Amino acid sequence: MDILSQDIMYLPGVGPHRKEILGKELGIHTYRDLLEYFPYKYVDRTKLYLISELSQDMPFVQIKGRILSFEETEMGKRKKRIVAHFTDGHGICDIVWFNGTKYIYQNYQVNKEYIIFGKPTFFNGRFQFTHPDIDDASQLQLNDMGMQPFYVTTEKMKKAGITSRAVEKLTKMLISKLTEPLEETLPPFITTHLHLISRDAAMRKIHYPKSVDDTQRARVRLKFEELFYVQLNILRYASDHRRKYRGYIFNRIGAQFNWFYSHNLPFELTGAQKRVMHEIRADMASGRQMNRLLQGDVGSGKTLVALMSMLIAIDNGYQACMMAPTEILAEQHLQTIKEFLKGMNLRVELLTGIVKGKKRQEVLDGLIDGSINIVVGTHAIIEDKVQFQHLGMAVVDEQHRFGVGQRRILREKGENPDVLMMTATPIPRTLAITAFGDMDVSIIDQMPAGRKPIVTRWIKHEQLPQVLTWLEGEIQKGSQAYVISPLIEESEALDLKNAIALSEELTTHFAGKAKVALLHGKMKSDEKDQIMQDFKERKTDILVSTTVIEVGVNVPNATVMIIMDADRFGLSQLHQLRGRVGRGDKQSYAVLVANPKTDSGKDRMRIMTETTNGFVLAEEDLKMRGSGEIFGTKQSGLPEFHVADIIEDFPILEEARKVASYISSLPNWREDPEWHMIALHLEKKEYLD
Question: Which of the listed CATH numbers 3.40.50.1000, 3.40.50.300, 3.90.1720.10, 1.20.1250.20 matches domain 255-444?
Answer without folding.
Answer: 3.40.50.300
